[in-house]
């Protein structure tokens, strides 16, 4: 008859504590968890959980760049719109006649009416050339006072006639051409600026008794010991030379611009028939 030892299980556990089923289950679960963790890269995280954050970071950077680019373009567009509105407001507010300053007859503002860039720079230089022409005509008149009566009378006619006609017939047309980009104004400029260039050669020569104190008259003044007339004649010669060469340069540049813009003489005739003189005196680019 066998004897049951109530301490048998207890003694076995004391001898081998890992024989306890609960301990073996715990160790088995721990081993499985460790194996799963060890089998996965980077500390047991799923591949998808690793790839997803990296993908999100990459897409987020590209999206941010695109967003910044769009915002930058929007800001540039808004700035352009503000600039255009400021120009329109300026013209509306200050669009009353402002030129010439001593007796305003027309509105003249290169910065407000001529598009920024090369056209505005060219128009500013052409304006300076026109002012140089007027200044030369004034000095020419003073020089002719010391030369003779015939020259003086012709010089007065030049100053009174050339000053307004040059402004209205070739300066203002190119001004309107740059502002409105109408063929009519460009061809009007080409015709009358061509006459002005030919006249510039004529007055540069300074033929005696023609009202010009330039080259030949200057030589005669020094020969006749008229030093004041001779010195002023040098200034006149230089003035007619500079304004003539400057206008010749811009004549070529404007001719090139006219063809690049596709303007034709047929278009100019059509615009003349359609708008007549209205386009010349109307502000803005609508007419």
Mind explaining what this structure looks like?
Residues 1-70 are annotated as: Disordered. With 287 residues, this protein is mainly α. The chain folds into 3 domains: 8-39, no CATH class; 44-91; 118-281. The protein is 78% helix and 0% strand. Helix 8 (183-205) crosses helix 11. The relative contact order is 0.08.
Number of helices: 12
Distance between the termini: 130 Å
* Percent of residues in beta strands: under 5%
Number of domains: 3
Number of strands: 0
The H/E string reads HHHHHHHHHHHH
Task: Give the uncertain stretches in residue-range form.
Answer: 41-56
* Helix percentage range: over 70%
Average pLDDT rating: 82
**What's the Cα radius of gyration?**
45 Å
Give the biggest sheet.
Answer: none
Structural class: mainly alpha
Question: Would you summarize the structure shown here?
Answer:
With 287 residues, the chain is mainly alpha-helical.
